[in-house]
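Encode chain A's predicted structure.
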Amino acid sequence: MKALNVFIINDFEGYYYDGSTRYSGNNENTEENLTADELMNRTSGYVGVQNGLTGLISMDLDRINKRTFQYSTVDMSKRNNWMGIDIFNKLVAWLRTGKEPDIIWDVVLPAKILYKITSECPNANVYVGIKGGLKAFEAMSKEEIAGKRWGIKTTDAPLTSQWIEGSKFKAVIEGKNVFNA
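Encoded structure for chain A:
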């Protein structure tokens, strides 16, 4: 009640707030904020991207080219939304040129990102882990598929029957027109 009274007495103005000291969104280990072009010249370190791999792969090219990314030489490999500079540079090159990245996939990603990878990287030996395998995947509705996250791994053969080839994953997505493919 006292705070409300003070607010009213001060003509509905809150406490003084210095906007220049607000949180910048940078991790405390960030050493620099650099553009993708500046990061291409780096050979070691880590890059922070909002929403990690998903965020980077989802970005349109204009945004990749204009924005700055957090950079650190501190080991950030166990931190969310951070990736090694080599992975970052390979993904940026892929998104800019369309040339398949030489990446060993071993992550969990949303269906839309998995579709992009399986569509634009047909030569990658990737498998998508789906509980119940191909039959269960084919039985899912468009909405179920669009809302799911699955693991993707680079391997020469499926790990179990729960892992389906990237090309089959892509075919089911397109067959059901999940992302208006």
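The two ends are 57 Å apart (CA to CA).
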